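Assemble and predict.
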Amino acid sequence: MDHLKLPVGRRTLIKGGAMLGAMQLASPFIVKALGDQPIKIGMVDPLTGSLSALAQSEVEGAKYAVAEVNKKNGILGRQVELLVEDSANDVGTGVQKTRKLIDRDHVDVIFGDVNSGIAYAIAQVTTEKKVFHIVPGGHTDPITGTNCKWNVFRICNTTSMDAAAITPELVKRFGKRWFFVTPDYAYGHTLQDAFVKNLKKAGGEYEGDMLPIAATEFSATLIKARAYKPNVLLNNMGGLAQIDCMKQFVQFGMAKDMALGGALFELESVKAVPKDAQAGWWDFEWWWDQPKVPEVGKFVADFRKAVGKTPSARHWFGYVAVNSVRLAADKAKSMEGPKLALAMEDMELPPDVALQPGKVFYRKGDHELMPNIFVGEVHPPQGNPDNIFTAAALVPGEQAAGTVEDTGCKMTPPPV
Amino acid sequence: MTVSFESRPMLDVILFNVTNGLIIGAFYVLMALGLSLILNLSNVINFAHGNFLAIGGYLAFVLVPVTGFWLALLISPIATAILGLAVERLMIRQVYRRDPVYSLLLTFGLAFIIQDMCRYIWGPNGLPLSVPDTIAAPISNEFFFITWYRIFMVVIVVVAVGGLFTFLRYTKVGVRIRAGTLDLETVSVLGVNVGFLRSFNFGLGCLLAGLAGVLAGGQIGLNPNMGDDLLMPSFIAIIVGGVGSLAGTLVGGLLIGVAAAVTTVFWPSGNEAVIYMIMAIVLIIRPRGLMGEEGMLT
């Protein structure tokens, strides 16, 4: 090779070099401009399908919190933008939407999903992409148990916590012979297993049916339940399926033969059933009527004014999710996933976010929030149309959860 | 999970579920007949049929406080039929002469539009549709799963099916619809107003969907997705019974209702899967369906 002939002249080359140098000097200003970009939170929830009412509430709670946070100068001085995607209650769609939020929209944080199976699946994606992930309302145990991840935190209880909290009350009040109506997916399986474990400890016996998640017809199962003559029928179905089951239970006049109960019967679902079906003993994961906690009264009044509804546990999940990111970012002074995760470990929620008595914190060992569990009776509205539950006891989350070893979680530290 | 009841012989549970399955099946029949009518005459696979059902239910929800349940049961299906006629005139009619895929895609999109419209107007939460107390209770303690409402539902289905069959057999329009099902082109050549026939038929199908919506609302309540869950069993009832045969649809609906209920006794999580299995078996052994005519599936 004799000479390398360049297509540009020497002067042009020098000018180009100078420009490149100038760009390097200017770059801090560009970085600063990026700092003005909003913080993006991606939320994947089943806005359509049988869990849509619960998902809508979580989104409303998150939106309310985002509006509040933005009014107070956002997170780390940056405004917050919530990007909501519909998982359509389908694992494949949920995973696809999560990848889209991370790869195309470049979100800093992922929230989701109400459906435990989807939450579990998208946790694999967020871990692979090293994105900070909060599961506001998917209950299946492995998410913060055997499959716990450094980047995944959960707000709602595990199914084991819910089962452990309500079982003694049901056994004490009604007896030890139970019939389960349970959805045939991740949440249902772990919930029923947890109930069976607690029931066996109490010396009880059981029978039950696992049904499709979006089942609408329960008469065949209820015929079996009645034949078994249980003390309690545990309706573990979720969303619309739970409502349909309750309606048929009442229509068949079964309330006089057996008690009704279970892990969750949420405000959204209770309001959708006839008065006769507003019954039984259940866990509530948060409750709006707590006269002894002044922060709750203010939150409920402000929320009603802004959203036009009484907040449910699902609203609270969304609210806590956004505020947890804010608190963790303030502590870490960063929005990087590993730093946020480190800041969240053992982080205690302040009273205006915890909105309940006692210490509420994210347990370091499994990244599970440790709130109180409200155990009590559902009844038709008393005065206020949303007053459909009376708490009989508050079970501390840590007591219901057992030890970290019990959960099977072997947490790896965040890669800071 | 195995079943091992000490307190009641297994046979009772099975027999109860056969009866229960006939009740469920009767409802599938009502839904499937409307779908079948539209499919047979116009070759339109109406994916929005379940959403017309939801509209029927929601209209009743709005009407019940004003008119009471009985009048709402009469008005809501008629209002649903009128809406169906408008949809047929404005949208479906445009694609009759095209490949059936066009109407399939059109009604598929329409289903999402109606579902989101219901969600926007009435919210994503379930809503209860009150039925009169007089028909809400079970007929006896022994037959607790047979409520007066379910009996009423079966009676309505029997009357509707009987009325439909009588209409199709003994009225001029009915006979033309049946003839059009076999050969619409010849019916058209004979001077019959095929456009009117199709519109009327679509409206009739929506009327049955609206009626099914009110009855379903009283049984399981209302939600924007309620039609989706009931649409697939209806399609399966048509395929099992045989496309082109209304009597086949009747048999198909009852068969899958009983199969789903009895399967729940032995394999609860498979009570939906079993109806798809039945469909697969029928398609393999007798592709035209149990009472269908050869060539109707092609």
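The CA atoms of residues 260 and 271 of chain B lie 5 Å apart.
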